[in-house]
Amino acid sequence: MAGLAASGSNPDVELLYDINGLAKAAPPWFDRVMQYVGEYGLLLAMVLLVLGCWWTVRRRGGAEAAPSVAALAWAPLAAGVAVLVNVPIRGFVERPRPFRVHQGLEVLQPGKTDFSFVSDHATITMAMAVALFVANRKFGLVGIGLALLEGFCRVYMGVHYPTDVVGGFALGTAAALLLSPVAMALLTPLTRTIERSPRAGRLITARRTPDGHDTVVPGATAGRLPGSEERDLAA
Questions:
Q1: Do 141 and 221 fall within a single domain?
Q2: pLDDT tens-digit readout, 48-67
């Protein structure tokens, strides 16, 4: 399997040269931006997107807050599971990085010595994006767009073949979707328990008092509030 895509006459390698060729034509400052975005920026953006969705769900509150937060918690966990699954896949395929096989590539991120298939960056971003889509379609679509951009950046940087990226997308999607029922069955009771906590419950729903301060769960039933708060609301 180590010789996978070693020939320069197949579409995978041709597309690699076409996309990576854009880096040769681009000004140096743009390549530096793409290097940072592709290596770190989009991963950070995915994390911030998940946190932004959590903040929105928390502020909205309601009966679906706990399951929604559980689905959001699954996003980084799905990425971690997918990366762990990728460890034996890389060892089995043993595909070298494209710049070790093909000449003339513009490599924007030197020092990559591990195997190429599949791309960890593509796996992580797509796993998080798909899990996010399950929790919230609007945020999830943005996440999928970021994941696709990550895949493009990895080829642009000369560190992955296009099929490395496609394989990462497939692995991340499979991990996020196939294990989602089990994850939700385990995480939802946990988030519901946290929601009932006077202090930690703020991680699940924003709490508001009658004067608008951040202490009462929007849409919560009176039976779920402490007794003193019920008396205040009745008054």
A1: no
A2: 999 999 999 888 878 888 99
